[in-house]
What does this fold into?
Amino acid sequence: MTWIDWTIVGLYVATAIGIGAWFTRKASKGTSDFFVAGRSLGWFVAGTSIVATTFAADTPVFVAGMTRTTGISANWFWWSVLIGQVATATIFARLWRRTEVLTDVEFVKFRYGTGSITTALRIFKSFFQGIGVNCVVMAAVTLAMVKITTVLLGIEPEHTWIVLLVLASVGLLYSAMSGLYGVVYTDIVQFCLAMAGSIGLAVIAYIDASSGEGMMAKLTNATEFKPELLHFFPRFDEVSWPLFTFVIYIMMLWWASAPGKGYSVQRLLATKSERDAKLAFLWYAFLHYVLRPWPWIVVGLLSLIYFPTVEDAETVFPLMIDHFLPVGLKGIMVAAMLAAFMSTIDTHLNWGASYIVNDVYEPYINPNASPRHYVWTARFAMVFIMIAAIIATTLISSILGAFMFLGVFFAGIGTVMIARWFWWRVNAFTELVAIIATIIIASATLILIPDITLEDETINKFGLRVLITTFAVMAIWIPVAFLTEKEPSEAAITFHEKMRIGGIGWNNISKIPAEVTTGLYEWVLVMALLLCILLGTGKLLFHEWLTGGILIGFAVLLFIPFLSILKRARNS
It folds into this structure.
């Protein structure tokens, strides 16, 4: 790192603080401004902000490391979520915006009405998601930053806490000043930096590896290279754990992501209209699954050439940055990693505080305070969440392990999260039972079905844990729904009258056509388009010209009907 690189980093930090200061007065008007930016975001800002937040410091680190050790097919762990997130874009985004709630937890009251069970569910979810889940995610991000700063800045791991504390404090400062306004606009700067650095790193490494005898020859001669690392899918001609896990990814893992949750829903609620909400998530899906993946995957695989042996695969991304990037571009990449860290921290602080204030403090503790009082309470809540996250960091040892833990949990509750939109029998008690059952069953599977290592090969039981948790929880909450809801409640009727979703699940209230019919067609079309581009690009990168060309050709054909989807969205 030279003075030029440090100057770039300093400019980003100053820009983030400046954006926070600029929006401070606007964000201080009340919770609507502080948590959902006064519902003023256009689709481009909202969608870019979502993808910037998912580009945390840990993301390229664990994707590159996972690809190096397990292969391209391991990325179905997150590629499969495309199925659910396209459903969010085509079916649920407009519905979320129509609710006009402030958080996805407030939806509990909107859907189920008032009552002691609703209150218990709302408070439980606020603390579980706002503090528990947030702390796990922020701890994983912090762990990634430890690895990045150790390699790039030459700082010993035991001293990195000083750097991370400074960065986290900056993120806390501007997000506390400006609320979601500051978060989303710094996200745009962060995403541009991050993609410039990632693409630049991948291109430089790819060109260098392609010299001489060629990239594929160098890669196949690498010490730790195995042919299956280049496979896009596990082998289908034999029964194996990788194949079983892949099937679970495709068939089930995406269920929890389909209706949307957390900070992504927060961005949808902050958009100007239902139209902007839909376009925002389509834009996010394109950036997330088409633009972002291959730079990280390429860097992870090519690291086998330049770093044949490493003790920790999750260090290869920063090692490749340090090895390849010249002065200036290295500063951009380091700034991007620091920015990615702060982007995730600021989002989770604002999002977590929205639960504590909007769903606990304001309705149940101090319901008659001024708007500015709630904003200041949110700022204090953000400090508390930051402290809790720092403590959680000491308990997380693996980035991928942290995300797999959350994957099992959210897969368990995915079915009830979808059903509550489309079936009048789902009630607050049903959802509460599903969450409690998920916590118990998911924890039991982690203890009773651990991963095992045989002859230097790790057998990952993640798919089995997801399968057992999902169906066990379904077997509990569905009978509970039948037993506890004999007739449509007033809350269900009110919800249906406002949302007008329709379909067989609401026939006991009103037999109107299902609004989601068009969304289902769009869901399939957009999924096919994105998967063709995603897989076609990868095939071309690794010299499978015929297959790659066919996939890109299909993508071109699918783009024609996709234009009509965009036209309908713009005109709606």
Summary: Residues 1-238+259-392 form a domain with the Sodium/glucose cotransporter fold (CATH 1.20.1730.10). The chain has a mean pLDDT of 85. The chain has 24 helices and two strands. The two ends are 50 Å apart (CA to CA).
